[in-house]
Design a protein that fits this description.
Order of helices and strands: HHHHEHHEHEHEHEHEHEEHHHHEEHEEEH
Strand order of the largest sheet: 2-8-7-6-5-3-4
Shape: globular
CATH class of one domain: Alpha Beta
Radius of gyration: 22 Å
Distance between the termini: 63 Å
Helix content: 40-55%
Oligomer: single chain
Strand content: 5-15%
Largest sheet: 7 strands, mixed
Number of helices: 17
Bound molecules: pyridoxal-5'-phosphate
């Protein structure tokens, strides 16, 4: 992609090769140095880009598990997020703050666009989205021609939900723990077109075998699509995506994976999943600006899926046919690159290990508390950065409001037909002493109940 010399910054590029070993200090310099550089830069010169690449290479060699509990390693990452430390945000699964660099880039590019929108927004910034597409593709492990940039997971997933050719009587199989808006989308198709939407119930928590068995039992010759989460938002349960995608293929079905809570959270390659479609938000675990998402469509399916917003050639094989949303804030798309940059500098494996380690920091003591019940299995194959817990006898909404009013702690109350609780999701910027505060607040409720 060619880039105009007048263009504003759009940092992205090819990923760094695997580097030799490194140490903690080099990583501190890497992230801290990058932050300093970005604060004064309005364009990413080749020299600066080369420096950033070198820095992330230095960080690459560090072992994920060893680094997960090394607090000094995480200092610059914690500093990269200008959050309000007078409160404790444990609802990062809902939506995540962006690192400072992404926020700055967004403002910079917004200013630049506003100087002459028809030129700067449309002619200069718009073509730069191709660099972000390339970046996302490399991170996900797909070809850039299979990646559409969307506004959120909803748009990504509903592009497929409403774009697939299905006829009355065809069955879409999902679970009763999928995200409500995705369920509404399939129900709307069912009401309007006579397809059938079936939801199976999974045990909470469930094992990989139970999940695969439940789907396998429910598939019939009429089943055309399996729709399921990579990570269930209600509990943090990781589903066996590879096995479910293999099952779908072996039974002649398509697989549509809701990865809203997995991309940027778990260290995986899309190519390892074997799915047909994968939709995700980027404003959750990837920490990209609000209103960003991504859709992966396996190359062979692009032609057959109708775009949600009309395109001149709806049966085109060009993935860009899924991006015809009209005039939109291109700076949002371009600043995804800054979030990806930090994600790479941390390293996906180290990020996953850290998120799990932070979750264990509060879940360990609370799992030994007799008055607290877990709806999430804590083994690494079952969950990672977040979990859902209940104090039996106390409504989740009441508990959430107590935590906020007494302790300024934000959690997400969960109410499902089969269970309830509060979902607790920290992020890479969360401090361990903050989690200790949450543990004490929960111990108090578990032992003494809510204040009258
Ligand atoms: C599992 C799941 N799918 C989809 C979505 C929708 O995401 P977005 O708000 O990015 O459209 C969410 C949001 O929380 C979610 O948890």
């Amino acid at each position: 992609m060619s880039r105009s010399p007048a263009s504003d910054s759009c940092s992205s590029g090819s990923p760094s090769p695997r580097p030799p070993g490194s140490n903690r200090r080099s990583f501190l310099r890497a992230v801290g140095g990058a932050a300093g550089a970005m604060a004064v830069s309005t364009s990413l010169t080749p020299r600066l880009w080369a420096r950033l690449r070198r820095q992330s290479q230095l960080a690459e060699g560090l072992d994920a598990k060893a680094v997960a509990t090394d607090e000094a390693f995480w200092l610059p990452v914690q500093d990269a997020y200008p959050v309000d430390r007078s409160l404790l945000n444990l609802n990062n699964g809902g939506v995540s703050p962006s690192p400072r660099q992404a926020q700055q880039a967004l403002r910079r590019m917004q200013d630049f666009a506003n100087q002459c929108p028809s030129r700067n927004l449309w002619r200069i910034q718009e073509p730069q989205r191709e660099t972000v597409r390339q970046d996302l593709a490399e991170l996900f492990g797909a070809n850039a021609e299979e990646i559409a940039i969307c506004r959120n997971a909803t748009e990504a997933l509903e592009t497929v939900t409403f774009g697939l050719d299905l006829k009355p009587g065809d069955v879409v199989l999902s679970t009763n723990q999928d995200y409500p808006r995705m369920i509404h989308a399939w129900n709307q198709r069912a009401q309007r077109e006579g397809i059938e939407f079936r939801q199976i119930s999974l045990p909470t928590p469930s094992t990989a075998e139970q999940t695969v068995e439940a789907f396998a039992r429910a598939i019939t010759p009429q089943t055309k699509v399996l729709h399921f989460c990579h990570v269930i938002n209600l509990t943090g349960q990781i589903l066996p995506v590879r096995e479910l995608c293999d099952l779908a293929r072996s039974r002649g079905c398509l697989s549509l994976v809701d990865g809203a809570h997995a991309f940027g959270h778990l260290d995986f390659r899309g190519t390892d999943l074997g799915c047909d479609f994968y939709g995700t938000s980027l404003h959750k675990w990837m920490s990209a600006p609000f209103g960003t998402g991504m859709l992966y469509v396996r190359k062979e399916h692009i032609e057959s899926v109708w775009p949600l917003f009309a395109h001149e050639h709806p049966r085109s094989e060009d993935i860009r046919k899924f991006e015809q949303i009209g005039t939109h804030p291109c700076p949002l798309v371009l600043s995804i690159a800054e979030a990806i940059k930090l994600h790479r500098q941390i390293g996906p494996a180290r990020k996953e290990a850290r998120l799990r380690s932070l979750r264990d920091h509060w879940a360990g003591p609370l799992s030994r508390e007799p008055g607290i019940r877990f709806h999430t299995a804590l083994e690494s194959e079952s969950s990672c950065g977040f979990a859902t817990i209940e104090v039996p006898g106390i409504e989740a909404a009441d508990l959430a409001s107590h935590l906020w009013q007494k302790h300024r702690i934000v959690v997400s109350p969960i109410r499902h037909e089969e269970f309830q609780g509060i979902r607790v999701s920290s992020h890479v910027y969360t401090l361990r002493p903050e989690l200790d505060r949450f543990v004490r607040a929960m111990q108090e409720v578990a032992r003494e109940g809510l204040p009258a």
